[in-house]
Amino acid sequence: MSGVPVNTGHSGYVQPSSYLRRSRGQSQAVPPPPPKPETAIDRDQRMALQRIRDFLKVRTSYDVLPLSFRLIIFDTSLLVKKSLAILVQNGIVSAPLWDSKTSTFAGLLTTSDYINLIQYYWQHPDKVSRIDQFKLNSLREIEKALNVSPLETASIHPLKPLYEACRRMLETRARRIPLVDIDDETGRAMVVSVVTQYRILKFVAVNVHETQLLRKPLRHLNLGTYKGLETARMETSVFDVIHQLVAFNISSVPILNSDGVVTNVFEAVDVITLIKGGNYDDLNLNVGEALQKRPEDFPGIYTCSIDDRLDTIFDTIRKSRVHRFVVINEDSQLVGVLTLSDILEYILLEGEGDDGKIG
């Protein structure tokens, strides 16, 4: 019978105390640092954001509308040329579309659609002669040819919470949203009005006094765009800027001088001013010449610095009709761009985690 070798150099058991000893080369787990205590500014910022969200959840889109307003709706069979003349005559930059054949809401016409049309005819100069006969219901063909975003078709019922309207705009990257109700007698859809991001943010600025607690400067917030900004010069051709607007799906391009100083901003709506009379020759101008054609009551551009706080920005929105803020340094050089979409996304989603993310 063969014996079993026994290693007498080791004990047959391990003492409990050996579990407490750290082996050579074995790293010891480092406990996570304790969370930083919430400062008074952090607490005020959090409380203000929660107050804004609570406000938006109990108010409806109807609450944002003025006591009296005018609504212009275009039939999809209308000529593009006529629609442009109506927009300019009434001082508006968008209008809901209505398909009279199906009696349904057909989307929202915006300056982006006119810019897409210009881009299309620039790429197909042999078809320019057809531009005056082009109808609104053919815009889909332009979108497909350019491979750009289609007409904005998002809408919401006017009695839905304003919070839902804001989220819908963020989901679709729309700057405005039509309010579509159902007629009690016919059971058909009807467009009530259009609500813009500016009107919503101004509604918040006027009615939620806690916006005064938003005292964190922009430099400490993940708010705005500061890299990869599209810019142009006064000498840049309008067509080149239009290409930028279409290619990057943006609504404005800051205009800089040779030192990087912001001298102006070319906006998508400036294109409407150039073609309002049906004369497309002005698109051959450079940016400096085009901006001279702005109306005399043009409000100018709004700037801020990364040290400005959201409370002062909301105060500006409350007092003035603002669409964006150009972020500059002490030498007026471009730093970034803060849009109303950025502000809306921040007040809705900041601190909400994965549950608040837009899909």
Largest sheet: 3 strands, mixed
| Helix-strand string | HHEHEEHHHEEHHEEHHEHEEH
Q: What percentage of the residues does DSSP assign to strands (E)?
A: 5-15%
Overall helicity: 25-40%
What Rg do the Cα atoms give?
28 Å
Low-pLDDT windows of residues:
1-21
Q: In summary, what is this structure?
A:
With 359 residues, the protein is α/β, with parallel strands linked by helices. It has helices at 40-58, 61-64, 80-90, 111-123, 139-146, 162-172, 197-207, 238-247, 268-275, 287-291, 310-319, 340-349, and strands at residues 74-75, 95-99, 104-109, 176-182, 189-196, 252-256, 262-267, 303-304, 324-328, 334-339.
Task: Explain what you see.
The protein has helices at about 40-60, 60-65, 80-90, 110-125, 140-145, 160-170, 195-205, 240-245, 270-275, 285-290, 310-320, 340-350; strands spanning about 75, 95-100, 105-110, 175-180, 190-195, 250-255, 260-265, 305, 325-330, 335-340. The chain contains twelve helices and ten strands. The chain is about 35% helix and about 15% strand. The strands form four sheets. Strands 1-2-3 form a three-stranded mixed beta sheet. The chain has a three-stranded mixed beta sheet with strand order 8-9-10. A two-stranded antiparallel ribbon has the order 4-5.
List keywords for this structure.
3-stranded mixed beta sheet, globular, 33% helix, alpha/beta, 359 residues, 12 helices, 10 strands
How would the blueprint of this fold be written?
Layout: H1 40-58, H2 61-64, E1 74-75, H3 80-90, E2 95-99, E3 104-109, H4 111-123, H5 139-146, H6 162-172, E4 176-182, E5 189-196, H7 197-207, H8 238-247, E6 252-256, E7 262-267, H9 268-275, H10 287-291, E8 303-304, H11 310-319, E9 324-328, E10 334-339, H12 340-349
Parallel strand pairs: 1-2, 8-9
Antiparallel strand pairs: 2-3, 4-5, 6-7, 9-10
